[in-house]
Amino acid sequence: MRVHHSGNLSCEFFSAYVNLVIRAREYTIGEAKEFTFNRFFQGDSTSLGEITYGNFMKAIKQCLSYK
Question: Please, are residues 13 and 25 in contact by the beta-carbon 8 Å criterion?
């Protein structure tokens, strides 16, 4: 998936993406978090900005609360 740096990715986007990764790859939430982080942020939490990273972390917390 190609991500442009022109806007912030939402919590809903990350929540849907992480849930898709969990189902499609049969990953645990921890594995899905690591996969998504590496896929979008390439190991650097500042690469897409503070707001996008915050939304990513909020989505992970929401996924954990549903499990």
Answer: no
For 10-60, how does the pLDDT look when each residue is reduced to its tens digit (9 = 90+)?
A: 999 999 999 999 999 999 999 999 999 999 999 999 999 999 999 999 999
Tokens encoding 19:
């849930």
CB-CB contact of 18 with 39 (8 Å): no
Spatial distance between the Cα atoms of 39 and 21, rounded to a whole number of angstroms: 11
For residues 57 and 52, what is the distance between their CA atoms, to the nearest angstrom?
Answer: 9
Whether the pLDDT of residue 67 is over 60: the answer is no
DSSP conformational letter for 8:
P
DSSP state of 10: P
Q: What are the backbone dihedrals phi and psi of residue 32, each rounded to the nearest 5 degrees, phi first?
A: -65, -35
